[in-house]
Specification:
The chain is an alpha+beta fold and 308 residues long. It folds into 2 domains: 193 residues, Deoxyuridine 5'-Triphosphate Nucleotidohydrolase, Chain A, CATH 2.70.40; 101 residues, no CATH class. Helix content is 30%, strand content 25%. Helix 6 packs antiparallel against helix 8. The protein is globular, with a radius of gyration of 29 Å.
Length: 308
């Protein structure tokens, strides 16, 4: 679900989503920057580009090449010239912190595309719990030079809620070199294990991640088995007489297996279900009924229609 302006304002108010302006002369203004389903973000005054005498970028030698980047700062209202087909590296002015149940995407504004200037963030995706600066690439695709200025509104942040809580947030992973940056750093592709030959750059963190994933998948397998069991029971329409006689084979196993299964699930999830199971058993034996119910993950509850 993409967040609307209502959702964005509420998330900002609760402090879940953070958008911070580093310069007091250019504060973040939710009233004007929050659009119907996005947030307008501005261009920072820090820029960089490769010198003209670099003829080749070899990923294995990227660390040395990055040292040759020309970094410069523009003063307020200072013009920045982009020559035809020139690429200029920049960053978003606002610092951003994404909530743990939300993802973000950076998109350029069409007003620049109409001039032949693309505003791109090649890594335009912000994972849950990302914090820091986001890089931009400004590319003049036209045949004429273009002059831009710092602090102009240059891109938009679109936010989407995840369907469930993430297992391992971005901030807890071991391969997040760009998290918590104040200045967007250059590419670290030279650290890729394929290029370095290293099997793991953060072995302890990677092992923790594997353990969490394995534990989660095992819990999911158990959950699915429980759900299949309850579907089997309820889909076979257990018939019960006034004296507690159960008509079909599945039904004869119902009470014992039902109590055992939900007790196991309750113990694992910390859900109190003794009273619910007891009440359900009493209803089952006192009523000539067809029990049709639904087992859910959120509380091991049984809801159903009892037909007298």
């Amino acid at each position: 679900m993409i967040l609307s302006d209502r959702d964005i304002h509420e998330s900002l108010k609760r402090g879940e989503l953070l958008v911070v302006a580093p310069n007091n002369n250019y504060p973040f203004d939710p009233a004007t920057q929050v659009q119907p389903a996005s947030i307008d973000l501005r261009l920072d005054n820090r820029f960089s580009k490769f010198p003209a005498d670099i003829s080749l970028i070899d990923l294995r030698k990227l660390e040395e090449i990055n040292k040759q980047l020309c970094i410069f700062y523009a003063n307020e209202a200072e013009p920045i010239l982009l020559e035809p087909h020139e690429v200029l590296f920049a960053q978003i002015y606002e610092q951003i912190a994404i909530p743990g149940n939300t993802v973000g995407r950076i998109v350029g504004r069409s007003r620049f595309a109409r001039l032949g200037l693309s505003i791109t963030s090649t890594g335009d995706f912000l994972n849950p719990e990302f914090e820091g600066a986001m890089p931009l690439q400004l590319v003049n695709h036209g045949s004429l030079p273009i002059v831009i200025y710092p602090y102009i509104s240059i891109c938009q942040l679109i936010l989407t809620r995840t369907q469930s809580d993430v297992l391992i947030p971005y901030s807890k992973r071991g391969d997040t070199p760009y998290n918590h940056e104040v200045h967007a750093s250059p590419s670290v592709l030279h650290r890729d294990p394929v290029l370095t030959g290293d099997k793991a750059t953060a072995p302890l963190q990677e092992q923790r991640q594997r353990t969490l994933v394995s534990r989660y998948l095992e819990e999911r397998r158990t959950d699915l088995k429980e759900q299949q069991f309850f579907r089997l029971i309820f889909d076979n329409s257990t018939h019960v007489s006034l004296y507690g006689n159960i008509d079909n084979t599945d039904g004869q196993l119902f009470l014992g297996r039902f109590e055992e299964a939900v007790s196991s699930a309750s113990e694992r999830r910390g859900t109190p279900i003794d009273l619910a199971v007891s009440a359900f058993k009493n209803d089952l034996f006192q009523t000539n009924a067809i029990a049709r119910g639904l087992y859910t993950n959120k509380g091991c509850c049984v809801t159903g229609e009892m037909r007298h």
